[in-house]
Amino acid sequence: MLTKTLSLPIRQAIAVTEMAQLGTENLREQFLIESLFEADEIQLVYTHYDRVITGGAMPLLDAVELPPYENLKTDFFLKRRELGVINVGGTGSVTVDGETYTLNTLDGLYVGQGSQSVQFRSDDPATPARYFLMSAPAHHAYPTAKLAKEDANPTRLGARETANERTIYKYIHAGGLTSCQLVMGLTVLEPGSVWNTMPAHTHDRRMEVYCYFDLHSDHRVFHLMGPPQQTRHLVVANHQAVLSPPWSIHSGCGTSSYSFIWGMAGENMDFTDMDFTPISELK
Fold first, then answer.
1. Which residues bind Zn(2+) (predicted)?
2. Which of 20, 63, 84, 178 could form a disulfide with 1 if both were Cys (CB 3.0 to 4.6 A apart)?
3. Whole-model pTM above 0.90?
4. Is residue 201 part of an annotated ligand binding site?
């Protein structure tokens, strides 16, 4: 079994006034995570937006274990944290303190605070599991639990006329897997649909992470961010993620259809807590 003990790379919180001064490369350095899934590694980033840690794990022949990163100053990763996992690759398994959970494609897992050992495996290295990970501080130990894609409250939304026919799956939320502050799910767009999260919105009460997947290597998503009247964009490839501050919109349009995970953390877990901006007011 491979393990890797490192210091977590840190992304500082950036204010709106600072964001306005950033060029393309600096914007990408601050808000885009370009590498999520590397063979037999766990790739994580610590952001000071709600002290969230996010990234990915892709085991091949060996298991990879969540290490006690030295700058967390704890004996094990989840001593004061909780963890959400969604598998966007082939079938694999996650073993938490000796109990193993099989995760098929798009299955989700919540791992409770205090869990000491978390190991990730793939069933077949030719089609490895790709685990998207998101962790937030936790104050209570809720049970570790799995939720299959089919049980994740699939909801059809959108229309062909607005190019946003999609299905939303909710995993960790008030009506699903219980957590302290994590809210996680994913959206699958139908072929021919390219827009997500429009009209755009912000929510001052929590940050968000978008992880894009099922996007062909020749295509990209133009992810819109920034204040509603001062928008910027990031060009995002498959298996990349965007950190979205509480003051920023988070929306996107692809050059083809795609899917994305949305993960949130903060003081409000109400999925509908959104401050919408009419499309006509975006600048």
1. 201, 203, 208, 250
2. 63
3. yes
4. yes
